[in-house]
């Protein structure tokens, strides 16, 4: 699978599209301006009704395109692309992300010298007009003791406070760079991303599973991108109703599959108190999301199969697992 040209490892870039034409121009501009030249691009289109595929064909002429007959969701599409990829590294990128020229080069440099890291994350800004202050979108993922996920630094003005390269819990799914050998190591039932998720929080699930199996994640601030995020964290109203239900369901799938008993014993009351708040919000403000709970029930046995598979080969020590949530 490995293909090195001039000593450079091949990076496979995977784009999952679904009516993404509006954002793809910036995404393509970012990819074609990269200083790192040894790249292959695989596009999986989920039955777009717009001109997403035409745009890709016109501007990324060497890319491979897979067309699905229906919208299979992010996870299935990315798994299709990973299976088709040949690179030592795999970069799934959202169509609404524009990479700065050195993005791939900097993340490859990091992972080439840090074999313990299975993934790397860059610094993401929100879009801004010329002259406006740069506002951060994400500098990695972290999870608190309620098991609420956060985008590290989201919404903060970039004043240089995140210029320190360091280990983080995981990489935000907008444009993480994964070591292919790490992806192969953490796959479960031939799936890299859990296809039960469809989309949303699949990056958290993969990050948590990777940590359990001994892989670390590195944040590199020299790898910069702009992310025109469609849905903002904590702002649910613009989200379609079915996606709100999926987001609620996926929280519990992630906990059910990945939570350690020693972590649960320490934090169970925080987790349950937060979940009571979620249920109260749904009952008062968002009754359509009550469907998340029967969806979760239908997936419970499959989730437990995943849990048994992962926990049968966990490498992270209990004290290390306790340190992840803060």
Give the averaged pLDDT, no decimals: 94
Distance between the termini: 39 Å
Class per helix and strand makeup: alpha/beta
Order of helices and strands: EEEHEHEHEEHEEEEEEHHEHHHH
Essential attributes:
326 residues; alpha/beta; 10-stranded mixed beta sheet; two-stranded antiparallel sheet; 10 helices; 14 strands; 39% helix; 21% strand
Structural features, described:
There is one protein chain. The chain has 326 residues and is α/β, with parallel strands linked by helices. The chain has a domain at 241-322. It is 39% helix and 21% strand. It has helices at residues 21-32, 52-59, 74-84, 103-113, 180-186, 202-212, 241-258, 261-285, 292-311, 318-322; strands at 4-5, 8-9, 11-17, 39-46, 64-68, 89-93, 97-99, 117-125, 136-138, 141-143, 149-151, 166-168, 177-179, 216-227. Strands 3, 4, 5, 6, 7, 8, 9, 12, 13 and 14 form a 10-stranded mixed sheet that branches. A two-stranded antiparallel ribbon has the order 1-2. It has a two-stranded antiparallel sheet with strand order 10-11. Strand 3 (11-17), helix 1 (21-32) and strand 4 form a beta-alpha-beta unit. Helix 1 (21-32) runs parallel beside helix 2 (52-59) and helix 6 packs parallel to helix 7 (241-258). The mean pLDDT is 94.
């Amino acid at each position: 699978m490995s293909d090195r040209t001039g000593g450079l490892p091949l990076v496979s870039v995977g784009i999952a599209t679904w009516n993404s034409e509006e954002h793809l121009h910036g995404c393509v501009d970012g990819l074609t301006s990269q200083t790192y030249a040894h790249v292959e691009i695989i596009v999986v289109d989920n039955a777009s009704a717009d001109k997403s595929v035409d745009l890709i064909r016109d501007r990324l002429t060497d890319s491979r395109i897979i067309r699905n007959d229906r919208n299979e969701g992010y996870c299935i599409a990315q798994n299709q692309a990973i299976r088709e990829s040949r690179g030592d590294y795999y970069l799934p990128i959202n169509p609404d992300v524009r990479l700065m020229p050195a993005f791939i080069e900097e993340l490859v440099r990091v992972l080439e010298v840090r074999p313990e890291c299975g993934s790397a994350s860059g610094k993401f800004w929100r879009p801004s007009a010329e002259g406006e202050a740069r506002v951060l979108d994400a500098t990695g993922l972290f999870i608190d003791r309620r098991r609420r996920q956060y985008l590290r630094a989201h919404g903060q003005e970039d004043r240089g406070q995140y210029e320190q390269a360091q280990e983080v819990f995981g990489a935000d799914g907008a444009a993480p760079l994964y070591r292919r050998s790490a992806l192969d190591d953490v796959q479960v039932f031939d799936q890299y991303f859990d296809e039960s998720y469809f989309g949303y929080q699949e990056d958290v699930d993969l990050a948590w599973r990777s940590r359990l199996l001994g892989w670390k994640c590195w944040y590199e601030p020299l790898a910069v991108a702009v992310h025109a995020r469609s849905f903002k964290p904590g702002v649910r109203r613009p989200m379609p109703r079915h996606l709100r239900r999926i987001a609620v369901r996926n929280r519990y799938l992630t906990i059910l599959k990945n939570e350690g008993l020693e972590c649960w014993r320490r934090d169970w009351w925080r987790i349950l108190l937060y979940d009571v708040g979620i249920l109260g919000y749904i009952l008062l403000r968002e009754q359509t999301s009550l469907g998340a709970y029967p969806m979760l029930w239908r997936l419970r046995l499959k989730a437990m199969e995943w849990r048994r598979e992962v926990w049968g080969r966990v490498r992270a020590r209990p004290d290390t697992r306790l340190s992840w949530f803060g």
